[in-house]
Amino acid sequence: MKDAFGIPQSLLVLGGTSEIALATARRLITRRTRTVWLAGRPSPALESAASGLRELGADVRTVGFDALDPDGHEAALGKVFAEGDIDMVLLAFGVLGDQSRDENEPGAAVRVAQTNYTGAVSSGLVCARALQTQGHGSLVVLSSVAGERARRANFIYGSSKAGLDAFAQGLGDALYGTGVHVMVVRPGFVRSKMTEGLAEAPLATTPEAVATAIETGLRRRSETVWVPGTLRVVMAALRHVPRGVFRRLPL
Ligand SMILES: NC(=O)c1ccc[n+]([C@@H]2O[C@H](COP(=O)([O-])OP(=O)(O)OC[C@H]3O[C@@H](n4cnc5c(N)ncnc54)[C@H](OP(=O)(O)O)[C@@H]3O)[C@@H](O)[C@H]2O)c1
After folding, report:
1. For residue 1, how far is its CA from the centre of ligand 1 (angstroms)?
2. Ligand 1 neighbours (beta carbon < 6 A)
3. How far is CA 202 from CA 19, 189, 199, 224, 244, in A?
4. Model confidence over 159-180: pLDDT tens digits?
5. Which of 80, 171, 214, 232 has an alpha carbon within 20 to 30 A of 225's alpha carbon?
6. Hey, CA dihedral for 124, 125, 127, 132, is it positive or negative?
7. Could you confirm whether domain 10-246 is CATH 3.40.50.720?
8. In angstroms, rounded to a whole number, what is the distance separating the alpha carbons of residues 42 and 65?
């Protein structure tokens, strides 16, 4: 169970090697989290992520999970919930893709959409049902500022995140009052392996800053978290910029 401050005792990460997820797990372990499941595609990186968290004193297990295999989600995630209650699920998997390549290779664009959107619809629903059966828990979804308004430079990724964001908001409303809390996190540019080698966007932040914002959001039981927080205001303005002007902005 979560403590009085909303900090989970048990955590399930979908996308077990995500730098943002691991920074969040490290932060939560220094608070109260004792059991961590890292769900991801089997790899040495997944095992090394697990050992890193074990060194901090947590009981860490890994489970095979592929966002692109929705038919396997019930079995993979069911195994985790069968072992005991999960107080928090962090939906952290995702791919950025390569916009210029993906525009020319529809199959590659579809993989971005299937990973970020349909993979999340499937695993999100499986976890939501399990949390609802328990009667408590948080589902924290890593959306993105990129989903707020489609940009020329990354509309394939952005549109997948827009779909994910809308799905997570609706799921949050569906679960309202059940004891299950859904929190949508919208980071801007985060310095992680996903953005390695890319030019930094304004207001760039770190996985640790996202982790801090997630912890604060859990304590407040927030429904939406922007990282950094100033992006909420920036995006409120950008959302209303006329299309013809927005198209010409160097974003
Ligand atoms: N970095 C940013 O600027 C930024 C900004 C806003 C939102 N976000 C979102 O935050 C989340 C975490 O990003 P991050 O920065 O921590 O990136 P990251 O370190 O690159 O992590 C991405 C994770 O997604 C997993 N993944 C990719 N395809 C998968 C699949 N088919 N099945 C299962 N797992 C899969 C990767 O696992 P493998 O080890 O198997 O590849 C990895 O664990 C993503 O959803 C991302 O879109 C990131």
Report:
1. 27
2. 15-21, 40-41, 43, 45, 65-68, 92-95, 115, 142, 144, 187, 189-190, 192-195
3. 20, 8, 10, 21, 22
4. 999 999 999 999 999 999 999 9
5. 80
6. positive
7. yes
8. 8
